[in-house]
Write a structure and sequence with these properties.
Blueprint: E1 4-14, E2 25-26, E3 51-52, E4 54-64, E5 77-88, E6 107-120, E7 123-133, E8 145-153
Length: about 160
């Protein structure tokens, strides 16, 4: 039966030509001021924090098998989350009026989610903690931690 399920998602994109910043590749961040965990996004990156004309991202989640108990309201399921992105901007000089970052040096994050701590039929609620590290981590360690609520719907 194994220990769980491995989910790998790779995303890449490239913008050709000299286009406005809003039409460049935007890495999908749900970190700052967003307290809901969203799979296959950067949980610690702010929305529109990073732009690039070429990028590649990898999302890896391992979901352990649920812990079976006699409870009908809880079925804890633990998830390990890792994500990384690399990107570059060739025409950065064309966007001087905007303050943005490009993940040239690599953006990294990891996290741990406890799903289905509360369970109502197929609907489950949990919590997660994520950590941002590497070249784009914040100066204060406490600012690199992000806490989120997990809402999952299990289809049979």
């Amino acid at each position: 039966r194994g220990a769980g399920n491995l989910n790998l998602v790779s995303k890449s994109g490239m913008t050709i030509g000299n286009v406005p910043l809003t039409l460049q590749q935007i890495q999908e961040g749900t970190g700052i001021n967003y307290t809901l965990s969203v799979a296959n996004t950067f949980e610690t990156m702010g929305p529109s924090e990073f732009f690039s004309d070429k990028f590649s991202a990898l999302f890896v989640r391992f979901t352990f098998l649920p812990i079976k108990n006699k409870s009908t309201w809880s079925e804890p399921t633990f998830v390990i989350h890792n994500a990384a992105a690399f990107g570059e901007m060739q025409n950065r000089g064309d966007h001087q009026m905007f303050d943005f970052k490009t993940p040239d040096n690599g953006f990294y994050e990891s996290g741990f989610i406890a799903d289905y701590l509360l369970k109502f039929g197929p609907l489950g609620f949990g919590a997660g903690v994520f950590y941002r590290y590497g070249p784009y981590e914040f100066a204060e360690t406490k600012d690199n931690f992000f806490y989120k609520v997990s809402v999952r719907l299990k289809f049979l």
